[in-house]
Amino acid sequence: MKVAIQGELGSNSHMAAVEMLGNQDDLEIIACTVSAQVLAKVVAGEVDSAVLPIENSLHGSVAEHYDLLLELPVRIDGESLLRIRHNVIAIPGVKLEEVRKVMSHPVALSQCRRFLAAHPELEVVPFYDTAGSVKNLMKAGLRDTAGIAPELAAKEYGGEVLVAGVEDHAENYTRFHLLRKEGAAGGANVADADKMSIAFAIEHRPGTLVAALERLARAGVNLTKIESRPVPGSPWEYVFYVDVRFDTTEKAEAALAALRGHCRMVKVLGWYRAA
Fold this sequence. Notes:
This protein has about 280 residues and is α/β, with parallel strands linked by helices.
C-alpha cells in the first residue's frame, strides 16, 4: 500500500499514517515536497491514499488543504488525532552545550518558545520540515546543529534525542485526514460513520449563513467545526466548510437535503468515524 504525505519520512504525517493504517510490512510512505503534489498523486492513481494535517489545536487550520479538498476529486475516509511532541535531535555523541544552531519548521519553532528563550545562545533557523531538519544535519554531518522534530525522525536518520518534549504545551494535537480518490474502493462504510465534512456556498445576502446553520440544527446534527475560505475571483464571498457529528445516518441525510435546498453549492467531502 502506497501512502503519500507532505514532508519527509520521520515527520508527524508519517507517524499519523502509521497510526491510521498500521505499521504493516507492505506500507510504503511516499514523501512529497508540497501538499498539491500529495493529492496529485492520489488523483493520478500513483498512490492508494494520502495523509494530510487539517488542523492543529494550537496553530489552527491548514487553509490550503481545505482549498484542495474542494478543488480535487478526493474524499475523506478517516481521521486521527496525533499528540505532537517536539524533540531536540543531533548527531549521536554531540552534547547540548556543543550545539550553536537549531533548525525546524517555523510552526514547530513557534511551539517551543520557552525552550528557545531558555537557550539564547542558540541561533534559530527556520527550515522547510521538522524531520527534514534532522535528515539535513545528519547528511551534512553538522555537529554544531540540532533539529527539532518527532522522535521517529531520530530513528529514521540515525540521530540522537538530546532533549525530549520541548514543546510549550502538552495539550498539542494535530488532526489528520486519510484521503482517497473519489470512487476508489476500500473507503469508509457510510453506515458506520458518525461524522461528515461538507463544503457549501450560499447567496451573498443578509441572513443566508444563519439560515444554513439553522437547517443543520433542525436536522439534529452537531456542528463541531466551521471554516470559511474566499472564493477565487469573487472578492468577499466565501465557501464554508463544516464538520458535523450525528448518531444516525438519517439525520446526516436530512442535514444534506436541507442544505441542498438552500445553498447554491454543496459538496460532501467525506463520511467517516470521528477520531
